Amino acid sequence: MSRLVVVSNRTADPRKTAAGGLAVAVRESLQRTGGLWFGWSGKIRGDPDGIDGQSGVHIQTFGNVSLATVDLTQQDHDTYYLGYANGVLWPVFHYRLDLADFDTRFSAGYRRVNQLFAHKLLPLLKPDDLIWVHDYHLIPLAAELRAMGCGNRIGFFLHIPMPPPMIMAAIPEHEWLMRSLFAYDLVGFQGHVDLGHFRHYVESEAHAMPIGPQRLRAFNRTLQVDAYPIGIDVDEFVGLANAKEGRDMFARMREEYSRRRLLVGVDRLDYSKGLPQRVHAFRELLAHYPENRDSATLIQIASPSRESVGAYDDLRRQMDSLCGAINGDYGELDWMPVRYIHRNVARKRLPGLYRASRVALVTPLRDGMNLVAKEFIAAQDPADPGMLVLSRFAGAAEQLKEALLVNPYDAQGTAHAIQRALTMPQEERINRHAALMKRIRQQDVHWWSRSFLDALAEAPQDERV
Predict the structure, then answer these.
(1) Given 159, 197, 433, 446, which residue is catalytic?
(2) At residue 53, does pLDDT exceed 50?
(3) Is 158 in the same domain as 56?
(4) pLDDT class for 70, splitting at 50, 70, 90?
(5) 140 shares a domain with 261
(6) Does 103 map to a domain?
(7) Fewer CB within 10 Å: C terminus or N terminus of the chain?
(8) Which residues pair with 184 in a beta bridge?
(9) Residue 463 counted as domain residue
(10) What pLDDT band is residue 465 in, cutting at 50, 70 and 90?
């Protein structure tokens, strides 16, 4: 069996409980086959060194899994990570051209760090290694490895949305980025909408020719593409809901809000998550369905995210203002409509909060997948489940059809869906939850990992020069 080499912007200790879908899948896959996880250490080094050889590569071994990390200079961190990955690719891929900063220094730093990763990784590779590269930080990594003679099978998975061709074309380096993807053997997307956007781009901009349902020919290369929606470890999350921390949180919420119906939102504080629109929709609920006053409470957790970036500081001030206004206008001495929490909440406590909530609001303006939606489903009591209100612009909406799908830009429409969720008969909630639970079990994180890696192992390879 080939060794698996995973490459991502950041790594995680494979011995510890993973918090995200990527970390769970990587840990499970690496422990099954043995392998190497390569990425940035998270540290900034003082003096830049050369890009050749293995200087500056830190290697730790845990059983049959090794972690290999490199440090970045302050300049590389600012241009590659803050500048290009999060200042250009993140906003554009989430359809926010107005927030992108197309500074040429950023693109140069992005190329430089991908070249650095390739130079540091290449000496660690074995001829039959299977290489799995993750996310928008590392789009050109395979092209850099190919330029140095790497002939291994290399796959790439994009965790965030793929924008439509006309939005993608706004990036000055868009042709280079998309050409770089053709250095991979397999590229995976979260959903069929993202896959369709990529196909339309390469067909219109690069005159790609389809070769069968899942293969494209462009830039003198043939690429296999498909959708692989990421999932969660359902059994692990059900176990968290039934563990002591989960049960204690559930009991505490039920006791404290015994006279209320809870709605919950759990997000990073990010402009893609539609948080102001969600608060507006909740305000519409109170305005047009007054029976929810002094009855429904929204607990909105918005964990800190990239607060050094101006757009996030603006968003935090906006949320502070909106939540304060709705509490001031509708609150009573013994009831606040919105409980807004701007800090991280321990993952072990979230299942109890989800189970105690009648409704989950997962309403991003655009999202690659959004695993909170699936975690909420897994945490529910099947005999009396809560209801999921889900944005149609979340990748999860392609799978979770039994949720109440909404347009997050339509505050009144979303308020109506919330009211429907709050008043939905128990039998309908049970039936919808059973269908949703079946689907997230069928396509869990282990299915995602196996499906992608099996396809990569079998993908036809072009002749390497």
Answers:
(1) 159
(2) no
(3) yes
(4) very high
(5) no
(6) yes
(7) C
(8) none
(9) no
(10) very low
Q: In what order do the strands lie in the sheet with 57-62?
A: 57-62, 65-73, 35-45, 4-10, 130-134, 153-157, 186-189, 221-227, 215-218, 209-210
Other Cβ atoms within 10 Å of 407 Cβ, number: 15
Q: Provide, rounded to the nearest whole percent, the portion of the chain with pLDDT above 70.
A: 95
Which has the minimum average pLDDT: 3-17, 145-159, 300-314, 332-346? 300-314
pLDDT, average across residues 424-441: 98
pLDDT in the model for residue 433: 98
Task: Check whether residue 337 and residue 371 sit in a common domain.
Answer: yes
Q: Looking at the structure, do residues 89 and 206 belong to the same domain, yes or no? A: yes
CATH assignment at residue 353: 3.40.50.2000
227-253 as b/e: b if 16+ CB within 10 A: bbbbbbbbeebbebbeeebbeebbeeb
202 and 112 fall within a common domain: yes
Mean pLDDT of 370-385: 97
132 and 195 housed in the same domain: yes
Choosing from 76, 135, 185, 367, the catalytic residue is 367
Lowest mean pLDDT among 30-39, 157-166, 287-296: 30-39
Structure tokens at 131: 């290489």
The answer to whether 384 is a known catalytic residue is no
211, 252: one domain: no
- CA pair distance 214, 317, nearest whole angstrom: 45
Residue 192: inside a domain, yes or no? yes
Domain that holds residue 289: 234-442
- Total domains in the chain come to 2
Q: HSE of 349 in the Cβ direction (CA atoms, 13 Å)? A: 8
Model confidence band, residue 390 (pLDDT cutoffs 50, 70, 90): very high
For residue 465, being part of any structural domain is answered with no
pLDDT of residue 52: 45
Examine the residue annotation and report whether 159 is marked as an active-site residue of this protein: yes
Tell me, yes or no, whether 106 and 200 share the same domain.
yes
Q: How confident is the model at residue 277 (pLDDT cuts 50, 70, 90)?
A: very high
